[in-house]
Amino acid sequence: MKNRGRARRLQAAVVCATAVLIVAGCSTVTQGHALSMLNDPFRVADLPATNGPSGIRSNAPAPNGTVVNTDNGQIDKLALLSVNDIQDYWKSVYSQSLKGSFVPVSKLVSYDSNDRSSPIVCREQTYKLVNAFFTGRCNLIAWDRGVFMPIAERYFGDMSVTGVLAHEFGHALQQMSKLVTRSDPTIVREQQADCFAGVYLYWVASGKSPRFTLSTADGLDHVLAGIITTRDPVLDADTQNDDEHGTALDRIGAFQMGFITGASACARINKQEITQRRGDLPTALQVDTNGDQETGEVTINEDTLSTLMELLGKVFSPKSAPTISYKQANCPDAKPSPPASYCPSTNTIVVDLPGLAAMGKVSSESEHTLPQGDDTALSIVMSRYALAVQHERGLPMQSPWTALRTACLTGVVHRKMAEPIDTPSHNELLLTAGDLDEAVAGLLTNRMVASDADGTSVPAGFTRISAFRGGVAGNMDACYSRYPV
Question: Which keywords belong to this entry (predicted)?
Fold first, then answer.
């Protein structure tokens, strides 16, 4: 966030991995309501939201094929098995939605980015290249078995390795079907590849892969976390192209398009589609009057929250605005959900300020967390205000649909905050690049933005993020119609 009032900025940091994703189940079920599968709290697309095993099946066939420069270790065996599965899938369905002919990737190469003698792969120096990539020049996929893939596996599980390679094979599909040219920007290439990964992983999640399983709650959450944190070079791109890969919302949005709709949706992704999907959301940090790049971070304190409450009042225009309190008190009709709770009977948002400030502290790279910063904390307060406006409408405070409606309304607030909103104090909080990454990461980790008045969320991060995305792209009326119960 950018505050033009009294709150000072914090120093920014970059983060790159996650340690633990905790998924809470739902204890409240409402019966008798017909809902779109896409808006059902207990489904992921048309699949049930379930926790369970994710990774290599116990009866999976052995990997087949050759990996150049392999050390015959676990990572290379997992990668080869993944490419076997990905290629078999796309070979069987390619002609249904893509033009041209299916062409298998001709070579797989493993390297260790820590090794000074790591080979040059298709004219690319791989020493210190901590990544995985596809290059059409040589029709090959290569991966770093020394750093990149082990980190992905450690923090996101086996299926994150498979997901990375599904993304890289998406670049191969682009070449087969001539979906992109050298003039297309990097972000188009990357989001198409994210989308193709979603198509393949839907097939795995639906139980059809002979090699892998993927649960739609905790398993898919880890894959989504990997999407947020991993980036890859497009080695055949025109060097004059920008190197933008997209925000977390961009990338997960593209992945969800493929997971829900299929390969035809991926083929439709182009610069215009991405621009329309983004709207006017910020994608780059601004420069201050001294020419220095702004961090976009504000301090989480009473002044900042006072400005936020004023802003939320302008966005929602409730007849009776909730008040904010920093003193814990008993609430007869809702459980506490620290660091911010909403009490319907008193129309009060109760904030544990030290706890909220800790949640809003920018993570350091060594902490191995998903992106975290001021909007991780502020989006939680936004969500509690969203509960207050639902309560004013007489809607239930404890239900999974309430949780998703809350996420949707919080997404609407983020869209509104992309432009200045005049408040009585004339202080402002503006959405900045990186804020959406923090909010989306929070939907996977603390889940609070997609929770009801008791702090209860829904099983799948995929579903929570879908609700938030719907709000960012839509309006308040759409949130109420999408989650009407």
Answer: Signal
